[in-house]
Amino acid sequence: MRLEGLELRRIGLDLVVPFRTSFGVESSRDVLLVRAITDSGDGWGECVAMSEPVYSPEFTDGAELVIRDHFWPILTGVGDVAAADVDHLLDHLHGHPMAKAALEMAVLDAELRASGSNFHTLLGSERDRVPSGVSVGIFPTIDELLEQVQGYLDDGYARIKLKIEPGFDIEPVRQVRELIGPDMGLQVDANTAYDRTDIDHLCRLDEFDLLLIEQPLAEDDLLGHARLAAASSTPVCLDESIVSMRTAKDAIDLGAAEIINIKPGRVGGYLAARRIHDLCLERGIPVWCGGMVETGIGRAANAALATLPGFVLPGDISASSRFFARDIVTDPITVEDGHVAVPTGPGFGFELDMEFLDSITTASSQL
Ligand code: SMG
Ligand code: MG
Fold it and tell me: pTM of the full predicted structure?
């Protein structure tokens, strides 16, 4: 397939409720979309970088720049390009996994559409729906948190994830556990807000029978996570720390990752995500699919990825309406009976609502 051009498009989407984590508040999403223009048709990818480098070092402006000035000149210079080649071609350029993932996704979407296939089929998995979990932000009061959680219970989600930070952890978790009862899956995510001196404190969460505690310590603190895993009965799950196959292997060998959150953007693409899934399956490490407040493009792809057999825990694949009043796809993800349906259309399975997409486009350039 010949890559003839690239469109870099920025869109702005307001969130229905502000989403607060230990690193800040998001009220709207500034998303970079990549359109691969090929001799066999177009494909789209979504870059999951946020506007500020608060979750990881990447940010939207940086992703756009590195694609335009560093990735594109390489890809245009090689003649025919297959999606499976993209990560090797860009491998000598350090970092920027979210930007690489968006580009690979656009090429893969074009490739799959051109051949009349889709990502779900490429993965070879049989499931046609996956369980849906919801990630709930930090609120000024526990009462407000409980009200939100009750709403998500009413929506039928299969599990609840609570964002925590120092000062908003034990008590909110206790009250949410009381509200949802002992059988509902509950987990927490600290986005690196604690350090090794907090290990005893974090062990106090053990009494709430959590599915896991996600990334409590710094992303480069594998040893600290291993110490917490040894001290705590709650399984330790890594998110930010897992940026490659090597970090995944090391974290497993060190006992720092009892569970892994797989996010394609964080590891450089959907193909790398599948390889890390395969490693975890072989090593007996349960995985689940994380979320980056994606639009219907990324969510469709995540739902397909989560059909792989190692994804044994519900992912952060909530309904489009959990974040957005209107999505950029014609068939946004909904939750029914605690599950989302895996899209069956070509490519990554979404169709864009071009009229709405154009109306929320804030900038666009074509290479
Ligand atoms: O996409 O449903 C979603 C959000 C899931 O909590 C979520 N993501 O660390 O796992 C995580 C966060 C990262 C993004 S927070 C803006
Ligand atoms: Mg996380």
Answer: 0.97
Point out the ligand nearest to the CA of residue 26.
Answer: 1
Mutate to test the pocket of ligand 1, among 157, 292, 302 (most ligand atoms within 8 A of CB): 292
Query: What mean pLDDT do residues 204-219 have?
Result: 98
Class of residue 281 by CB neighbours under 10 A (exposed 0-12, middle 13-18, buried 19+): middle
First to last CA, the chain: 17
163 belongs to the catalytic site: yes
Average pLDDT over residues 39-56: 97
Best of 132, 316, 340 to mutate for ligand 1, by most ligand atoms within 8 A of CB?
A: 316
By residue count, the chain amounts to 367
- Judged by DSSP in three states, 93 sits in coil
Q: How far is Cα 54 from Cα 56, in angstroms, rounded to an integer?
A: 6
Short-list 358, 303, 308, 357, CA closest to 131: 303
Count of CB atoms within 10 A of residue 218's CB?
Answer: 16
Separation CA 280–CA 109 (nearest Å): 25
Neighbours of 82 (CB within 10 A): 11
Separation CA 134–CA 132 (nearest Å): 7
Tell me the C-alpha distance between 262 and 250, whole Å: 15
| Residue-wise pLDDT tens digits, 61-96 | 999 999 999 999 999 988 899 999 999 999 999 999
